[in-house]
Automatic annotation (TrEMBL):
It is a multi-pass membrane protein. GO terms for cellular component: plasma membrane. This is histidine kinase. One of its GO terms (molecular function) is ATP binding. The keyword Metal-binding does not apply. It comes from the Bacteria. SMART domains: HAMP (SM00304), HATPase_c (SM00387), HisKA (SM00388). The keyword Kinase applies. Residues 436-651 form the Histidine kinase domain. Signal peptide: none annotated. The chain crosses the membrane at residues 273-298. Gene3D superfamilies: 1.10.287.130, 6.10.340.10, Histidine kinase-like ATPase, C-terminal domain (3.30.565.10), PAS domain (3.30.450.20).
């Protein structure tokens, strides 16, 4: 730790104590005053925006009164009455730029345009407005519809239109938005206040000065305005216009689906707050300086007393004897001076005692030398013991190497044993397959025998001709090809190709089922397949087929042993989240709870030794977990047993096809 003069430390403490209120005040201003001021400014803008929005809403509602009056007389058969009502409204309402009466077909039947000759008005009669979007919306909804802002073709200025259904007709009014800017100018409470009317696309349609409207600006790219146009909640915050940062809020005008923007420059909005904070800062600074000056005087006096006390202490450290120790009106200082004086007296006393102790230690050092000699002798004995221990450790390491070789040898034997067990399982599966081939061939052989006998009978009856012989030949060859296909499937199932391949598991399942089909049909067992398009797996298809064969044989044996009335085996497959799941279910009554955890153990079987080796499910588990990095489980299902195989899909390529 770095030592510092007492005077410097006291000055720092005094500065810290005097500056702490200033820091707390600044923290209070940032955590409470600023948020409170922002909330007050936002509340002011919200109330002002709501007030102006209500006035603008009333402005538009008043503007539509003329359309209501014209709509009231549209039932007259005489269009002159309607034309007179339109002209009267144009004279009374200065902001009304044009008015049209449009019939159900979209044709203009009566029209009035301010500051336009009767000849030009006549050109507008009969104009087809059937494709006008505002006309179509009013006809379709049967309610009042307002348009977006647009440049008027009759007046040349920025306008807005309202369409009001009147029976089968539609009254359309066009208003000059320049009057709306004058209206906003009259409602502006201050010169620094900015009030804008914005349509639903962000286009400025009116402002109190008219300058923004004249520029035809679109403010949709300003984040605050874009957020409000795409949201239904109230939005307030900061925005930048003409390089000036402003704060404001937007509120909706329900009549025309537009928004009022009320904003002020940030410096004007926060002017009163900054003034108050400045006065507070000056006051705190003056108070802090005065307190710091008083603290400096008190600090200097206290440090002088401690310096005098330090001089007396240094005299004691040099071996002298100090007298007239300084005292003060501070109780703690006097206690420290008294303690130092007592310590000085104690040091002189201890110096005398130290001389006596040195003599005693010299005597003790001589005794320590003798003990060191004895310790060296003991160390020699320990070195010898460590050498013997190292010899024993070397012997133990040699024993560990021998033990490791034995473990590797046993592992090799276990792998060889597993290989023999798998080979034994494949031989057992081969026997099962030969039995299935016998079932597969029995029917084709019977068919061949019947065809040969029929051929002989027809020959004796002289019924044979060339076409009949060709028919017999085709039938025989079809049967023989079916038998050859069975042999090919059997050969592919047991071929010794151990190379890794990409294969479709659905194809393997269907091929395995074909080998068992005759055996299952002979036993009266129904087999149902529901195979979805699968992803390709990486591995040995023969191993995968052997797993399916073992599970199907196991299900068949259970169904036969328990003489189930309607035996059924169901095989389904499904892929989800990169894992292929194959489920094989039977209705053979299930597995007893006390043996369900043993079905995958080697040589475990519930059959007679002559009927099974107990290796099929064990080999299946070894193949799925070792070769396909998957899992195989067994569980009870309603009325039977469910085997579930889950294999991770490693090739992200879907195979499209239809399962049999």
């Amino acid at each position: 730790m770095v030592a510092r003069p007492l005077r410097h430390m006291l000055v720092r403490f005094a500065a810290l104590i005097t500056l702490l209120p200033l820091g707390l005040t600044a923290l209070l201003g940032s955590l409470w005053l600023l948020p409170e001021a922002e909330q007050e400014i936002a509340s002011y803008h919200r109330q002002l925006a709501l007030t102006i929005a209500g006035q603008v809403d009333s402005y538009f509602k008043a503007s539509r009164v003329s359309a209501v009056s014209v709509a009231a007389v549209t039932g007259q058969t005489d269009l002159a009455v309607v034309q007179k009502a339109i002209a009267t409204n144009l004279q009374l309402l200065k902001r009304l730029r044009a008015m049209y009466l449009v019939d159900a077909t979209g044709r203009v039947r009566a029209v009035g345009v301010s500051n336009m000759s009767k000849a030009l008005q006549g050109d507008l009669l009969g104009l087809d407005l059937s494709r006008n979007e505002l006309f179509q919306k009013a006809r379709a909804s049967g309610t009042e519809q307002w348009s977006d802002s647009f440049l008027s073709v009759v007046g040349g200025g920025l306008s807005v239109a309202v369409a009001m259904p009147a029976g089968s007709n539609v009254v359309i009014e066009e208003f000059d938005l320049a009057h709306l800017s004058e209206f906003l100018h009259q409602t502006t409470p201050g010169s620094e206040q900015l009030i804008m009317l914005i349509d639903r696309h962000g286009q400025v349609v009116a402002d109190q000065a008219g300058t923004w409207t004249a520029q035809q600006l679109n403010l949709n790219n300003i984040p605050l305005i874009h957020e409000r146009l795409t949201s239904t909640k109230e939005v307030r915050g900061s925005l930048v216009l003409n390089g000036i940062e402003m704060v404001g809020s937007l509120h909706k005008i329900n009549t025309v689906d537009w928004w009022i923007l009320v904003a002020r420059p940030r410096h004007a909005a926060y002017r009163q707050l900054w003034t108050s904070l400045g006065i507070m800062a000056v006051t705190l600074a003056a108070t802090t300086l005065a307190a710091f000056g008083v603290a400096m005087v008190l600090t200097r006096r206290m440090s002088q007393r401690f310096e005098s006390l330090a001089e007396h202490a240094q005299l004691v450290t040099r071996g002298g004897e100090a007298t007239d120790w300084p005292h003060s009106t501070i109780v703690e200082f006097n206690a420290l001076a008294d303690s130092l004086q007592q310590m000085s007296e104690s040091l002189h006393e201890r110096a005398r005692l130290l001389e006596d102790e040195i003599a005693e230690r010299q005597h003790a050092q001589e005794e320590l030398h003798e003990k060191a000699l004895l310790l060296e002798q003991e160390i020699g004995e320990r070195v010898l013991a460590e050498h013997n221990l190292q010899v024993k450790q070397t012997q133990l390491e040699a024993l560990n190497l021998t033990l490791e070789a034995r473990v590797l040898e046993e592992l090799a034997k276990n792998r060889e044993k597993d290989a023999l067990m798998i080979q034994q399982g494949r031989l057992a599966a081969m026997g099962e397959m030969l039995s299935n081939i016998a079932h597969q061939w029995r029917q084709p052989l019977n068919e061949l025998g019947i065809m040969i006998q029929t051929l002989r009978l027809e020959y004796d009856d002289k019924l044979l001709d060339g076409s009949r012989i060709d028919e017999f030949s085709d039938d025989c060859m079809r049967t023989i090809l079916h038998m050859s296909k069975t042999i090919d499937t059997f050969r592919d199932f047991f071929k010794k190709d151990r190379s890794l391949q990409q294969f479709d598991p659905s194809v393997c399942i269907v091929a395995t089922v074909e080998l068992l089909k005759a055996s299952l049909q002979a036993a009266g067992i129904s087999l149902r397949l529901d195979l979805q398009p699968e992803c390709l797996l990486q591995g040995q298809p023969n191993d995968f087929s052997q797993v399916i064969l073992n599970i199907l044989n196991n299900a068949r044996d259970i169904l036969l042993a328990r003489a189930v009335a309607t035996p059924v085996i169901t095989v389904t497959s499904q892929q989800a989240q990169g894992v292929l799941v194959i489920v094989v279910e039977d209705n053979g009554g299930g597995i007893a709870a006390d043996i369900v955890d043993k079905v995958f153990d080697p040589y475990f079987t519930t059959k007679h030794k002559a009927q099974g080796t107990g290796l099929g499910l064990y080999i299946s588990k070894k193949i799925i977990e070792g070769n396909f990095n998957g899992t195989i489980t067994v569980e009870h299902c309603p009325g039977g047993t469910r085997f579930r195989i889950a294999v991770p899909v490693r090739i992200a390529e879907t195979v499209h096809g239809e399962s049999d």
